[in-house]
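Need the bound structure for zinc ion, inputs here:
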Amino acid sequence: MRVLGIESSCDESGVAVYDTERGLLAHALYSQIEMHAEYGGVVPELASRDHIRRIVPLIRQVLAEAQLKLTDIDALAYTQGPGLAGALLVGTSIAHGLAFALDLPLIGVHHLEGHLLSPLLAEEKPAFPFVALLVSGGHTQLMKVEGVGQYTLLGETLDDAAGEAFDKTAKLLGLGYPGGPALSKLAEQGDPTRFTLPRPMLHSGDLEFSFSGLKTAVLTLVKNQPDDKQTKADIAAAFQEAICDVLSSKALAAMKQAGVKELVVAGGVGANKQLRQRLNEVAAKRKAKVYYPPLAFCTDNGAMIAFAGAMRLQQASRSDSFTVRPRWPLDEPQKSA
Ligand code: KG4
Ligand code: ZN
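Answer from helper R.:
Posting the output first, comments after.
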């Protein structure tokens, strides 16, 4: 079965074709980052308009790369939520239009399910059950994953997401949007021991997170320290260190609680080198193994949506209802109506 997947939940238009026998055939992405950078964050209306411009050409590109015609596609998958309602409606409308015209089955995919299953696109894949650490711009969650569609929420952030903390801290340090990659680059030149930042909820005894206090602590530092490049790099390094400490310690605790030895890291912050290194170190000490999606599929992309859609369709799920779900808990993946 060949599934065409469309992602349009935020500021990336992504399209891919996944074949359940041959794997990923082609994928293409258009990032709107440059357009939003000027405003310091995503402008929802501009995002929707740009998805409209990009998605059909991306579909053409992907089909050409895979040497397929539209009629070679067997099913459509699109991001149904969570995300920006107007942006979601673009991918949803295109997928529904194609499914109607070609008389094909279609499935609305949960964006986080896409991220969560994306490590299965790598050559070295985890086996179920595993714990997933989902760290994106909008979510920070630990889930126990027992199979496709079998997700139990173990803990999540009470306030800001990890990616959001990276973005807001980067803004405080005068770095551009999106802040995560810029902050992590600056941190490479910094000394993480010069400043000590709090590790919120590190010893809370549960699997919840909180990152808004960390951002406030950075604000205090920025106000009270000299405004030179080295100080900024040292603050960035201290911030990254604090986030990595909390995420790695809670991820390990979640694996212990769930009784599994495999951890999957997904979402944009999963691209962070320092986090990867830290997770690999702590996991190795416990003889556990960490799996990551291929780097290109850490941040938003169409491949993860085509893949998650294909897995769902193989389970005979489909959803013909034309709704988007801007807010959608992952432990209720297919209850849309
Ligand atoms: O998964 P994603 O592409 O979009 C959402 O679904 O939110 O994640 C985007 C987030 C942004 O907050 C971005 O700053 C962060 O992931 N991010 C990073 C890195 N690359 C992206 N954060 C830290 N280090 C990175 N290398
Ligand atoms: Zn995402």
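Comments: The longest helix spans residues 229-258. The pocket of KG4 (ligand 1) is lined by residues 10, 136-138, 163, 166-167, 178-181, 184, 267-269, 271-272, 299-300 (CB under 6 Å).
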